[in-house]
Design goal:
Length: 449
């Protein structure tokens, strides 16, 4: 972590610029949200512009909110990365929170999928006026213009639509997912994409650009959301894409005012027929193995269920199986799903229908924090369920056909690692080393926020 001397040193060396950029990780919510009955996520990297005369004050505020400064650079020193200098409004939902010390998309019971704050540095969140010279690959093609990348999955579509030329889709439906008595607003949105070339596969994300301008008068930048449908869409006709979105809501740490996320609020209240600006798709980290005999472990909190739903539809839904004669899943999937209350079990009917129809191939385990107790008498979170089944999970993970997917709150990773560390240690295996090998083998997939 940078101390005060480091900040002053950086300021003394800046070449005429009086604005610096802090890269901060681990920002938490306010002290009030620390007292809530469900976990609030911590952020990934957040980029905050700081005037020279506020540097010390900003450092104290970041420390107060549990953040850690991992880099400080004068604004003029930043180099473009894949066509975009990574500073300031990394995306406007993040930046508006960063100025108050908050993190984008705070989630209790599972919230709208990842607003990925790396989206801008990947060349996504930029308008034509903001474009910078782009890095080039070995063949001389600009990175942000790559249409597809080949790997074990064949052609993986990427960046078909970019922010300066998004696809304009239409809302087909916008349905609530939280039942009466549940917490928060979570919606299942289906968009018509039949008029364009947008293609995607399970485990990818799309960007949504909300209308209007940010507080600096610039067009709103995109936010990324994990796709909740298979490549064929909910209607299995290749004409739609679906998202699972939770409305961001939190208390401003200084004014105590309720703040709502710009993009998540825009999406949650869209009416059928409304236009929506879509970019992407992006992402290769969460792709499902093509092996129909694979074993798949899924650990999700809240709207981290989105990619898991896509996997399960592809594996088990009758219409999907009919549409994919080359992929007939015969393996085993286990979903461990964390939510605060029973009404917050997103897609409950779908999940339990699959469980009933395929009892030998699909296992469903809930961790309902406000209704279930862990062995210590505390609330039952997903990491407690993993600890409960750690030995069984460890045996599965050792199988070379097993892939593990984690999506949702970043805070759950430590508990999962602790449980598997204990299980692996019984056989004299160091989990941290073993996990590195899993990652190298592309069998350990994580998308947390």
């Amino acid at each position: 972590m940078y101390n005060q001397g480091a900040v002053e040193g950086a300021a003394n060396k800046e070449l005429g610029s009086r604005v610096f950029v802090y890269e901060v990780v681990g920002l938490r919510q306010s002290e009030e949200t620390d007292q809530t009955n469900y976990p609030i996520r911590k952020s990934g990297s957040v980029f905050i512009r700081v005037p020279y005369n506020r540097m010390n004050q900003e450092m104290r505020r970041i420390t107060r909110l549990g953040g850690k400064i991992v880099s400080i650079q004068p604004l003029t020193a930043l180099e473009p990365v894949n066509g975009k200098a990574s500073f300031g409004n990394v995306n406007s939902e993040v930046s508006e929170l960063a100025t108050s010390g908050e993190t984008a998309n705070s989630e209790g019971n599972g919230k709208a999928t990842p607003v990925n704050i790396n989206s801008e540095v990947k060349g996504f969140a930029q308008s034509p006026a903001e474009e910078q010279p782009k890095n080039k690959d070995k063949k001389g093609n600009t990175m942000t213009q790559a249409k597809a990348k080949k790997d074990a999955h064949g052609d993986v579509p990427v960046n078909i639509y970019r922010p300066n030329a998004p696809y304009i889709g239409k809302v087909v439906s916008n349905e609530p997912l939280v039942k009466e008595g549940g917490i928060g607003i979570v919606q299942h949105l289906k968009f018509d994409i039949s008029g364009g070339d947008l293609k995607y596969i399970e485990g990818q994300s799309i960007g949504i650009i909300p209308p209007g301008v940010d507080k600096n008068g610039k067009p709103e930048k995109l936010r990324l959301y994990s796709i909740a449908s298979t490549r064929h869409g909910d209607d299995v006709d290749d004409k739609t894409v679906s998202l699972c979105v939770r409305q961001l809501e939190y208390k401003h740490p200084e004014t105590n005012e309720t703040v709502y996320g710009v993009c998540s609020t825009h999406l949650c209240f869209l009416e059928p027929g409304a236009d929506v600006k879509i970019t992407g798709p992006v992402g290769k980290e969460m792709l499902l193995p093509q092996d129909p005999d694979a074993k798949v472990i899924m650990m999700a909190t809240g709207t981290g269920i989105a990619p898991m739903r896509a996997y399960l539809w592809r594996q088990f839904k009758d219409a999907e199986r009919a549409a994919n004669p080359e992929y007939q899943f015969k393996g085993f999937s286990w979903l461990i799903f964390g939510v605060p209350t029973s009404p917050n079990i997103l897609y409950k009917e779908e999940l339990e229908e699959i469980q009933q129809k395929y009892p030998d191939n699909f296992r469903l385990t809930y961790a309902i924090s406000r209704e279930q107790k862990n062995p210590q008498g505390g609330r039952m979170y997903i990491q407690d369920r993993v600890a409960e089944h750690a030995d069984e999970l460890w045996q599965l993970i050792k199988d070379e056909k097993t892939h593990t997917y984690i999506c949702g709150l970043r805070g759950m990773e430590d508990g999962i690692d602790a449980a598997l560390t204990a299980a692996a240690a019984k056989e004299g295996v160091t989990w941290s080393d073993y996990q590195k090998e899993l990652k190298k083998a592309h069998r350990w997939h994580v998308e947390t926020y």
